[in-house]
TrEMBL record:
UniProt entry tagged with the keyword 4Fe-4S: yes
GO cellular component: cytoplasm
SMART domains: Elp3
Name used for this protein in its record: Heme chaperone HemW
Domain Radical SAM core, first and last residues per copy: 9-240
Entry-linked Pfam families: Radical_SAM
Role this protein plays: Probably acts as a heme chaperone, transferring heme to an unknown acceptor. Binds one molecule of heme per monomer, possibly covalently. Binds 1 [4Fe-4S] cluster. The cluster is coordinated with 3 cysteines and an exchangeable S-adenosyl-L-methionine.
Keywords: 4Fe-4S, Chaperone, Cytoplasm, Heme, Iron, Iron-sulfur, Metal-binding, S-adenosyl-L-methionine
Annotated family: Belongs to the anaerobic coproporphyrinogen-III oxidase family. HemW subfamily.
Subcellular location field: Cytoplasm
GO BP annotations, alphabetical order: porphyrin-containing compound biosynthetic process
Any one Gene Ontology molecular-function term assigned to this protein's record: 4 iron, 4 sulfur cluster binding
Superkingdom: Bacteria
Amino acid sequence: MIDVDTLQLDNKQEYALYVHIPFCWYKCHYCDFFSSVGVQESLRIRVIERIIMEIPRQLEHLKIRQLSSVYIGGGTPSLLTENQVSRLLSIVQGYKPQQITIEMNPEDITPLWLSALQLERWHNIRLSMGIQTFHQESLIAVGRNTTLEQTVQALQYLEPYKDRLNLDLIAGLPHHSEKIVCADMHRVLEYSPSHISLYSLAMEQGTILTYRHHPDLPSEEERSIQWQVSQRLLQSAGYVQYEISNYARDIIDRSRQNLHYWQLKPYIGIGPGAVGTLVYRNGTAIRVSGKRSLQSWGNIDMHDMWEYEVIDRQDFLFEHYMMGLRTTIGVDKLILHQRFGSRGMQPWRQLARGKWGAYMQESETSLLLSVEGRLFLDALLLDLIDLCRG
């Protein structure tokens, strides 16, 4: 069991659940999430069964009766069988979440698999499919085995559910040019899903992309320009940015789970490599991670599956700013006060006296950055982290 004192947890707050499916058919070269490929089927089945079993066990242990949202990510959740995904969804639906998001790859989507989601019955299920690009040469360069034909077919299957569908795009992939990313964006806008996530390719430490030479990889400046051009196309089409990489047609189309993370609300993570954050009534936070061991999770007699980290209060304060300032909602002043007292606002006040003051805004409930300010978020955070730790 997750070993925490449940009597001291702040159960007045909403809790969310993240379920990590740690398997993939192949490993994308830019991905730094925990996932395994080529795993023996018997082990994969045992791990998935253990993940499904642990959800009610851990929530009951933590005395959590209801969830605000659920996110099923990975890895590749769409490699679950129809029976597995149906049972998983049935369990989490019992906690009455307002929204459940499940990630999918285009090549996995079939009418039979979609029928297992019971989308006509459960209107709180939100779908998220990673397209990344329609440019086949770029997909091959980053190790994605999806074909253009598979993506087009998947979009046809998902047509009835566009009002609860997110599509992921990445700008700045190998072989990308401004013309290609604009063509990608125009194609997605023509399809018109309710939500679009637009990322600029990140060179994450330890990924295949960082040590395999790609002569056709756009420069950092080119990647930034491609992302900004795509962003302008999104906004001109009526999508509203509510976080640096996320755009929705309407407020109801936003990802509740991501907003939960960005506001540093507590959540549970279940699965190998899954991370959760539990918050005590006194504001202390514990980060609980599922051990990155498939053998541990695949052993029904193994119970030592969790790793714990007490988050330093100064670091936790900085995390509130780092996450909240990414969004148009900003940092919740009430949560800052409840968790940190008067200390919570001090770094913001100090920062506002300097060069960043012109980009900083404050409402009755929130601390936030202007549109221009979010463009300089990384640089601003470098100054803010010192103030939080000072």
